[in-house]
Amino acid sequence: MNTSDTSLPVSAASPAAQASEPVDIITFKDVVKRFGDVTVLDRLNFSVRKGEKVTIIGPSGSGKSTVLRILMTLENIDEGVIHVAGKPLWHEEKNGELQPASEEHLREMRKEMGMVFQQFNLFPHMTVRRNITEAPVHVLGLGKEEANARAETYLELVGLSDQADKFPSQLSGGQQQRVAIARALAMKPNIMLFDEPTSALDPELVGEVLNVIQRLADQDDLTILLVTHEMQFAKQISDRVCFFDKGVIVEQGPPEQVFTEPQEARTQEFLKGFINPEG
Ligand SMILES: Nc1ncnc2c1ncn2[C@@H]1O[C@H](COP(=O)(O)OP(=O)(O)OP(=O)(O)O)[C@@H](O)[C@H]1O
C-alpha cells in the first residue's frame, strides 16, 4: 500500500486529532517505511506530547533519521498515519476520507517544524543573515525589515550577533551549526527536529552547540525531537529516551531508567558501547 494511491477512512485518525487541544503534538500510527526491499520503519507507533523533549537513540541504520525526515516531509510513508498538531501530515481529510496530501498541505504542515541536520546545510553563497531571512521572507511573506529583526533576535540567542555579514565558509563548524539552529528558529516552529547535530563537529566545538540546544530545551512550549549519540547530553535534556532498533521502539522511558536500568537485552548491549552512559 502506498499513500499516493490509497484512501484511508478518517476514523483512522487518532483521538488527539479530533480534540481541539491535542495532548500529543506528534503521533505515528502503524507507520511503515520501506526503501526498496528494506523495511526501515516496521509498523511504528510513537507519540510526543506538546513541549516534550524526546531523544531517539539506537544503532546505525535503525531508522532514527528516517523518523525525522518523514516528519519534515522529506520522505513519504508507505503505510499508516502520522498526525502533527492535530492534523494528518501525509494525508488530507476530504469527503470523510484521508487522501494523500497535496503539496500545499505539506507546505503548511512543514511550518510546524524546524530541522537541524548533521551537515548544517547552510546556503554557501548567502551571508549568515540571508541564510536566516530567506525562508521567513519567501515562505512566510515577512517584510525585509521584520525578517532582519528576527535574524538579529535568533543570532543573539545562539551567540552570533557579530557574524551576520559573514559567509558560512568563514565560520567554524560549531558556528555554522548555531546559524543553522537560528535559521530553523526564525520560522518560529512549534517542534524542533535535531538529526545528530554534533556528529560532524570537532570535539572541541560540540559543547557550544549543545549549550544552545540546552537553552532551547529550557523552553517549556517547544517540542524537541533529538537523534543523538551524545548519551550524557541525552540524559541531561530529555524527558524521555526512545531506543530504536530495526524500525521499532524496543524500549523507552525517562533517561534515568533507560540509561541506568535498561530492561531489554538489545538496549543493554547497545549502551555497553558507550563509556559511562549512566554518568
Ligand atoms: N533515501 C534512501 N534510500 C535508500 N535507503 C535509505 C535511504 N535513506 C535511508 N536508507 C536506509 O534506511 C535505513 C535507516 O536509515 P536511517 O538513516 O534512518 O538510520 P539511522 O538510525 O538514522 O542511522 P545512522 O545512526 O547511521 O544515521 C538504513 O539502512 C539506510 O541505509
UniProtKB/TrEMBL annotation:
InterPro entries: AAA+_ATPase, ABC_ATPase_HisP-typ, ABC_transporter-like_ATP-bd, ABC_transporter-like_CS, Ectoine_EhuA, MetN_ABC_transporter-like, P-loop_NTPase. Residues 26-271 form the ABC transporter domain. This is Amino acid ABC transporter ATP-binding protein (PAAT family). GO terms for molecular function: ABC-type amino acid transporter activity; ATP binding; ATP hydrolysis activity. Keywords: Amino-acid transport, ATP-binding, Cell membrane, Membrane, Nucleotide-binding, Transport. Belongs to the ABC transporter superfamily. It is found in: Cell membrane. Its main location: membrane. One of its GO terms (cellular component) is plasma membrane. It comes from Paracandidimonas soli. The keyword Iron does not apply. Pfam families: ABC_tran (PF00005). The keyword Methyltransferase does not apply. Gene3D superfamilies: P-loop containing nucleotide triphosphate hydrolases. It is a peripheral membrane protein.
